[in-house]
Amino acid sequence: MVEMRYAPLYDGALIPRLGLGTWKMGGDSSPDYSQDERILDALRTALDLGYRHFDTSEMYGGGHTEELIGQAIRGYKRQELFITTKVWPSNLHYRGVLKAIEGSLQRLGIEYVDLYLIHWPNPQIPLADTFKAMNELADQGLARYVGVSNFDLRLLEQSQIHSKYPIAANQVPYSLYQRTYRQNEVLEFCQENKIILIGYSPIGKGSVVADRRIGAIADRYQATPAQVALAWLIQQPQVVAIPKATSREHLEENLGALEVKLTEEDVEVLNRLS
Ligand code: NAP
């Protein structure tokens, strides 16, 4: 089994550098029960291979993705898992957040989540209302850490003001192909403030595999383009990646990124890739 690597949260606790994304496992925004056997098999395979960090949302599969994860993790020691879920923007008013986390915990079959994120900002609902609830649920131990997703610098700073607890993470699109949050200084801000940047769509939804420039670097490490794309991310301070994969082959391949150590020269070449 490949050895997991970790990034430090603000208090020194650890989050696995590679997690499993679960968007579209069990449906898009409404449940699709037709693939349950295949998805459960994928989640159990991921656990067998050593994945312990799962990323989901109350929105994925209209809640069914959380149910499937709940079934797959049954029997595993809770403290060995790192489970992130997210509250959807329409639920960001005070009571909505408290109700949303109750639903997520019930579907996941757990008593607390490791990380609870605001999935997307909602300009119609004051952040103060949302964080009043986020503060309470963290007080009650329903979430070990709270954070945000798709937040720019201004919103991130505002969140820090409203949150009683440090913002633990900001989940944003980040890959060799998608560097908006690096260019707009969110990454730098996260690194300076001990905030984990969780990169979503880290292999460009699978598109990096066909890139010959990445392939040429990968060949030198006897690795694959997906592994190089992930290694480039998780070598950066405070950066964690959550590739989604359902086949055993992809699940194994992505974990293999943990063993790829890119040289500074290759990181530079990849930094310049556009
Ligand atoms: P991704 O992880 O970049 O790509 C997933 C796609 O790549 C799937 O089609 C998968 O196929 C394929 N794949 C996986 N490993 C591969 C490999 N080694 N070689 C070739 N293809 C491979 O994209 P994503 O699902 O958009 O992002 C990952 C996760 O981030 C999501 O699942 C979700 O948890 C999270 N996310 C969050 C937000 C947000 O707003 N916070 C938005 C988007 C995503 P198979 O499934 O067939 O293996």
Order of helices and strands: EEEHEHEHEHEHEHHEHHEHH
Name the helicity range. 25-40%
Question: What structural class do the secondary elements suggest?
Answer: alpha/beta
- What count of domains describes the coordinates? 1
Low-confidence blocks of residues: none
Total number of strands:
10
Radius of gyration: 18 Å
**Distance, first to last CA:** 34 Å
Q: What CATH architecture label applies?
A: Alpha-Beta Barrel
Mean pLDDT: 97
Number of helices: 11
Overall morphology: globular
Small molecules bound in the structure, each named once: NADP nicotinamide-adenine-dinucleotide phosphate
Strand content: 15-25%
Structure description:
By secondary structure, the protein is of the alpha/beta class. The chain has a single domain, classed as NADP-dependent oxidoreductase domain (TIM Barrel), CATH 3.20.20. The protein contains eleven helices and ten strands. The strands form two sheets. The chain has an eight-stranded parallel beta sheet with strand order 3-4-5-6-7-8-9-10. It has a two-stranded antiparallel ribbon with strand order 1-2. Strand 7, helix 5 and strand 8 form a beta-alpha-beta unit. The structure holds NADP nicotinamide-adenine-dinucleotide phosphate. NADP nicotinamide-adenine-dinucleotide phosphate binds next to helix 10.
How would you summarize this macromolecular structure in one to three sentences?
By secondary structure, the chain is an alpha/beta fold. Helix content is 40%, strand content 16%.
List the topology elements.
Blueprint: E1 6-8, E2 14-16, E3 20-21, H1 36-49, E4 53-55, H2 64-73, E5 82-87, H3 94-108, E6 113-118, H4 127-139, E7 143-149, H5 153-162, E8 167-173, H6 180-183, H7 186-192, E9 196-200, H8 212-220, H9 225-234, E10 239-241, H10 248-255, H11 264-272
Parallel strand pairs: 3-4, 4-5, 5-6, 6-7, 7-8, 8-9, 9-10
Antiparallel strand pairs: 1-2
This protein binds NADP nicotinamide-adenine-dinucleotide phosphate.
